[in-house]
From TrEMBL:
Record flagged with keyword Cytoplasm: no
Keyword terms, alphabetized: 4Fe-4S, DNA damage, DNA repair, DNA-binding, Endonuclease, Glycosidase, Hydrolase, Iron, Iron-sulfur, Lyase, Metal-binding, Nuclease
GO MF annotation list: 4 iron, 4 sulfur cluster binding; class I DNA-(apurinic or apyrimidinic site) endonuclease activity; DNA binding; G/T mismatch-specific thymine-DNA glycosylase activity; metal ion binding
Function: DNA repair enzyme that has both DNA N-glycosylase activity and AP-lyase activity. The DNA N-glycosylase activity releases various damaged pyrimidines from DNA by cleaving the N-glycosidic bond, leaving an AP (apurinic/apyrimidinic) site. The AP-lyase activity cleaves the phosphodiester bond 3' to the AP site by a beta-elimination, leaving a 3'-terminal unsaturated sugar and a product with a terminal 5'-phosphate.
Domain HhH-GPD: 44-193
SUPFAM superfamilies, per database record: DNA-glycosylase
Biological process annotations from GO: base-excision repair, AP site formation
Catalytic activity: Hydrolyzes mismatched double-stranded DNA and polynucleotides, releasing free thymine; 2'-deoxyribonucleotide-(2'-deoxyribose 5'-phosphate)-2'-deoxyribonucleotide-DNA = a 3'-end 2'-deoxyribonucleotide-(2,3-dehydro-2,3-deoxyribose 5'-phosphate)-DNA + a 5'-end 5'-phospho-2'-deoxyribonucleoside-DNA + H(+)
Protein's UniProt keywords contain Metal-binding: yes
EC annotation from Swiss-Prot or TrEMBL: 4.2.99.18
InterPro entries assigned to the protein according to its UniProt record, in alphabetical order: DNA_glycosylase (IPR011257), Endonuclease3_FeS-loop_motif (IPR003651), HhH-GPD_domain (IPR003265), HhH_base_excis_C (IPR023170), HhH_motif (IPR000445), Nth (IPR005759)
NCBIfam families for the chain: nth (TIGR01083)
The protein's name in its UniProt record: Endonuclease III
Length: 228
């Protein structure tokens, strides 16, 4: 039996309040100068570190200037230019085909709706959420990356497992809408700095006393329910 909604909402409120003090100015860590570069960077970031993506796009954006250049390029050439990125062959095809579609159906502009974005090759809801939030200043959902997925479960805020279901659960009265955008950044920052996947630093965690997954031996507010 899972925790009731009001308990999870109270837990989310406490987590948000502490993390907003810890990280008062959360920002996206990908480098980009326009909406299309943002789209490219987010597509490349799937199962790849932002640091690696930024290293690759520093040269990539010098070579390809906008969707027209990506659409005109040979997919194999794009793949060669991003070959240090995970799944670079697939992502090269996505970038080429998405650029073609943006030119053909959106006059060369990155669309500003969830449906149009997720209709682009290689773009799922997570990528679309990032582009909407940071490219169009529109927040329609919560970006659920691996950090948000891991920490939301560890902290007892959700028991859902799949990103799409986690997002829907968090949006349904658990995380206030005004925090949907920054919730992701706060959990990413905390996941990188403290609550890592393999060796979370519970002793130096600002959430340790309210975390049901704490490795330290004492009682916490919620029933045990985290996953390692």
């Amino acid at each position: 039996m899972g925790e009731p909604l009001d308990t999870r909402a109270a837990q989310a409120e406490e987590v948000i309040e502490r993390l907003r003090r810890e990280y008062p100015d959360p920002e996206i860590s990908l480098d980009f100068s326009d909406r299309f570069e943002l789209l490219v960077a987010v597509v490349l970031s799937a199962q790849c570190t932002d640091e690696r993506v930024n290293a690759v796009t520093a040269d990539l954006f010098e070579t390809y200037d906008g969707p027209a250049d990506f659409a005109a390029a040979d997919v194999d050439d794009i793949a060669d230019d991003i070959d240090s990125i995970t799944y670079y062959n697939s992502k090269a095809g996505y970038l080429h085909d998405a650029a073609e579609k943006i030119l053909a159906e959106h006059d060369g502009e990155v669309p500003d709706t969830m449906s149009a974005l997720t209709d682009l090759p290689g773009v799922g809801r997570k990528t679309a959420n990032v582009v909407l939030q940071h490219g169009h200043d529109l927040t329609e959902g919560i970006v659920v990356d691996t950090h948000v997925q891991r920490l939301s479960r560890r902290l007892g805020i959700t028991e859902e497992e799949r990103p799409e279901k986690i997002e829907a659960d968090l949006m349904d009265g658990v995380v206030p809408e005004e925090h949907w955008k920054n919730y992701t950044h706060w959990l990413i920052a905390h996941g990188r700095d403290t609550c890592t996947a393999r060796n979370p630093d519970c002793e130096d965690c600002v959430l340790e006393d309210v975390c049901p997954s704490s490795k330290l031996d004492h009682d916490v507010d919620l029933a045990d329910g985290g996953e390692w």
